[in-house]
Amino acid sequence: MVSVTARNGFGTEIAFSGTTAADMVGVAGVLSITPPRLSKNVIDVTNHGTTDGYTQVIPGTLTRTSPITLTAIYITSSSMMSDTIIDAFENRTKSRLQITIAGTSSQNQIISEGYVTDYAILTPFDDKITFEMSFKASGEPTFQNAT
Fold this sequence. Notes:
Layout: E1 13-17, E2 25-26, E3 30-34, E4 38-44, E5 57-65, E6 68-73, H1 79-90, E7 95-100, E8 109-122, E9 130-137, E10 142-144
Antiparallel strand pairs: 1-2, 1-7, 3-6, 4-5, 6-9, 7-8, 8-9, 8-10
């Protein structure tokens, strides 16, 4: 049997900067983070000579990234939530986002430059107010060890 050492995601952090040059500021009250999923474009090369009845593909050159999504408790006194993220969205400002994954020893930080593409404040009837945002990377994300 293969031994597995699982890690708890508790303590994963996310930081945001409304520009690509400014210092990163942590986002408080984070409930969940979905890091970017990487996928390769595929090119269908199925042709009349295909004999097994299945499509044939080759990998494309481009790598796609899925949006990074975040849900956090909405903190009204946080200028990050009430100003910085909304300003980046409204002004279409290229921003920077950094995820530091808890409990890992290598390749535990993902840094992306891109754009806030979605922002919502959710106000349930009998629960905490939260906000959700989506961030789409433009270009290659950096995977590195946290310093």
